[in-house]
Design goal:
The protein has 456 residues and is of the alpha/beta class. The chain is 30% helix and 22% strand.
Length: 456
């Protein structure tokens, strides 16, 4: 009976997710912009985002996005141009990049905590001629001199230029674009050096947003609590998609606070929250409070939850269900632990292996390279044998690899001639192991890096 329940739970989640992403394709003219506009038209009067007392309905979110699109047109920005976004979490964050995407403009989402050399590097890499900042980030922007990049203030310049009512830009503003075109740049710390700008195509943004809309099973009545930064994919795309493509509401906070977390969850009547592993550990390390079980949470979803904190989250904090997933900003490898096996980052049972592009290959830790046999090809790992996780690169939406803005950096993540001459696989840089039931477990990062606060 236990096996039947486990498989039923896994298959229900997987089917729900695959149904949401099945129509995504490189050549499709349906963009993430269109997905969001359809959600607006379906649930115009529902609350979309609530941020520290202020709210936007879906209609108001779209109206704000349309005004930002009009501002961009007034600035002479055209399809394919890039705008850097240097902002903390705030009500206008998603409407800003959504509005720019209505005119085919790419938003480069930069970590608002960066300063100096790292910030200058990200701005240069973005290729933007305008950077949108606010009072909290303007000083850092003004302190770096990047040729060709002008700063503009969200609360002054954009507000003044976009205060009048404007119409939604017609679909013809994006005519000729396909899902393979770039929608966003999201920066990842990578394994060494300065941040790298990952190309998030419309197709990849759809995989994030539609995928989590399906995986979480969120309903219009759900309220998803988000304290993760919107410049990263987990908070900014996965969590936002889970809510906004299902008619649900986002309860957004400026940043995570372990001391206020459960009080806000209770007061805001949240039904889900998104996490990274460290967030849950901070919560577990605090003294018990009355509010930590006085809530309506039915699901926590995210990545990096450690095996020792997992039971604590369920037992102490009375979270009925945990949905752990595995993936990376720039990569083509993703999987979910739909049935909640403790400690597992995902699951692929043998009978469904053909649906996924994922494999583990033996890895020489000292040489920091995959092991190759006498025929020159890599060697697949057996059950419970640690190996590097690879993702096959081919034409499907779920296996596509858009890489980084820097082509040379993209090539460093590709391993060729893995199992046959001419094949290509994305290197995750993670050592995983897979047990006989198909559960994957994290073992280690390759090289001298580790994950902390969602960064390498």
């Amino acid at each position: 009976m236990e096996v039947i329940v486990r498989e039923a739970r896994y298959l229900t989640g997987l089917i729900r997710t695959l149904l949401r992403v099945r129509s995504i394709a490189r050549g499709s003219t349906n963009l993430i912009t269109d997905d969001l506009e359809r959600a607006v038209d379906r649930w115009p009067d529902r609350m979309a985002i609530r941020f520290e007392g202020a709210e936007l309905t879906y209609r108001q979110l779209d109206e704000l996005a349309n005004r930002y699109a009009a501002w961009a047109e007034g600035e002479g920005l055209a399809r394919g141009d890039r705008v850097a976004v240097l902002l903390p979490n705030r009500l206008e964050y998603l409407p800003l990049w959504f509005g720019l995407s209505k005119r085919g403009i790419v938003s480069a989402l930069i970590n608002y905590q960066l300063t100096g050399e790292a910030l200058a590097h990200c701005l240069e890499l973005s290729g933007a001629r305008i950077c949108v900042a606010d009072v909290s980030t303007r000083a850092a922007l003004d302190a770096v001199a990047v040729a060709g990049v002008a700063g503009t203030d969200l609360d002054v310049d954009l507000h003044a230029a976009s205060s009048s009512e404007v119409r939604r830009p017609p679909g013809s503003a994006r005519a000729g674009m396909t899902a393979a075109d770039t929608a966003l740049l999201v920066y990842t710390s990578g394994t060494t050096g300065l941040p790298k700008a990952a190309r998030i195509t419309h197709m990849r943004a759809q995989l994030y947003m539609r995928g989590f809309a399906g995986a979480t099973g969120a309903k219009p009545s759900d309220r998803i609590y988000v304290t993760l930064p919107l410049y990263h994919a987990t908070g900014g795309l996965c969590a936002m998609g889970a809510a906004l493509l299902n008619g649900a509401s986002v309860i957004l906070r400026h940043s995570f606070s372990a001391g206020h977390f459960w009080d806000e969850i209770r007061d805001e009547k949240a039904t889900m929250f998104v996490y990274i592993g460290e967030l849950c550990r901070y919560l577990a390390n605090r003294a018990p409070t009355a509010s930590e079980t006085a809530h309506r949470i039915r699901l926590a979803f995210g990545n990096g939850l450690s095996r020792d904190v997992w039971p604590e989250l369920k037992r102490r904090f009375a979270v009925p269900r945990v949905l752990e997933f595995y993936g990376s900003t720039e990569g083509n490898v993703s999987m979910f632990n739909f049935d909640g096996g403790v400690g597992a980052i995902g699951r692929i049972p043998d009978y469904l292996a053909g649906l996924f592009n994922i494999t583990l290959v033996r890895f020489d830790v000292e040489a920091e390279a995959p092991v190759r046999g006498g025929d020159g090809f890599c060697i697949a790992c057996g059950p419970d044998e640690p190996g590097e996780c690879l993702g096959a690169i081919h034409g499907g939406a779920r296996s596509d690899y858009a890489g980084y803005v820097d082509h040379a950096e993209s090539e460093k993540k590709v391993l060729r001639n893995v199992f046959r001459r001419g094949d290509a696989w994305f290197r995750t840089g993670d050592l995983l192991r897979r047990d006989r039931l198909g559960y994957f477990y994290f073992v280690d990062r390759i090289g001298d890096t580790f994950r902390w606060k969602g960064e390498n």
